[in-house]
Specification:
By secondary structure, this protein is an alpha/beta fold. The chain folds into 2 domains: 109 residues, no CATH class; 125 residues, Rossmann fold. It is 34% helix and 16% strand. It is built from 10 helices and 9 strands. The strands form 2 sheets. Strands 7-6-5-8-9 form a 5-stranded parallel β-sheet, sandwiched between helices. Helix 1 links the parallel strand 1 and strand 2. The longest helix has 16 residues. It starts with a strand and ends with a helix.
Length: 265
């Protein structure tokens, strides 16, 4: 097992935590082909070189910077996460999280919120979303009979990527405020889809890389599977961990079990 976590304080802290966690399990010598890194920019290179990549990234719910996700061989919804037994939502609630009441399309909001992302982000896998924004905005207005608000990602704005989408008003306020008035949220694969589902909003995703993909509608005329929301949220709580949980080894139980099974196989 090799560690590639040396760029920036967040990587150094995560690296120290995950090394301590594997040491607690006596597992540092397992997985000679395993490379542990932060972010898919590095992970993609290691994977292309034939390594099994254990990828660390930000969490998905609540204060995302307080949590770290750990997945095999892919970013977000394209990664593989170890299974954990159902706990009835205990871990989810312990994070101070809750599911807001469901808000249905008609009578539950004033507009469609189209969520922008950061150009060049690894989650986009090279896609240029500007044509997609323009096409999707027009299609969403026709599909739902509502005005469309486009919310550019704050980091995109900070980097000078201001995008005016024809037929849309631009919303640059807090995401929570934008969600509060939305009848529908439409994303490519933004993590804002997770926030939208937690807020009870009908959510549409267009790419399987979204962590909301198992619940969200997968096209503008598709169905948002609200009935899957609770078990999905409870499972998602086991896909993000504090550094303390990683260092204690608690976050690595499923991963170490997988590594030991592969050693025996």
């Amino acid at each position: 097992m090799q560690f590639y976590l040396t760029s920036g304080q967040h990587q150094i802290k995560a690296g120290a935590a995950i090394k301590a966690g594997f040491e607690r399990h006596g597992a540092l010598q397992l997985g000679p082909n395993v490379a542990v890194c932060w972010g898919w920019r590095k992970g993609r290179i290691l994977r292309a070189a034939g390594r099994d990549v254990l990828l660390l990234e930000r969490g998905y719910m609540g204060d995302r910077y307080s949590y770290t996700s750990i997945a095999w061989n892919g970013l977000n919804g394209l990664g593989q996460f170890p299974d954990y037994p159902p706990d009835g939502g205990k871990r989810f609630r312990s994070m101070g999280l809750a599911l807001a009441p469901l808000r249905y399309i008609h009578g539950g909001g004033q507009y469609v919120l189209l969520v922008g992302q950061v150009p060049g982000d690894m989650s986009l896998r090279g896609a240029n979303l500007l044509p997609w924004y323009k096409h999707t905005a027009a299609q969403a207005a026709a599909q739902f009979g509502l005005p469309v608000a486009f919310r550019p990602h704050p980091h995109a704005l900070a980097r000078g990527h201001g995008q005016n989408i024809p037929g849309c008003r631009t919303d640059t306020g807090p995401l929570s405020d934008a969600l509060s008035g939305a009848a529908v949220v439409v994303t490519y694969n933004s993590n804002a889809a997770v926030d939208a589902l937690l807020a009870g909003v009908w959510t549409v995703c267009h790419d399987a890389g979204s962590m909301a993909w198992p619940v969200a509608a997968q096209s503008l005329d598709g169905v948002c599977h609200y009935e899957r929301r609770e078990p999905w949220a409870h499972e998602l709580a086991f896909k993000q961990w504090t550094l303390g949980e990683i260092a204690s080894g608690e976050a690595l139980v499923g991963i170490v079990d997988e590594l030991r099974r592969s050693e025996v196989a």
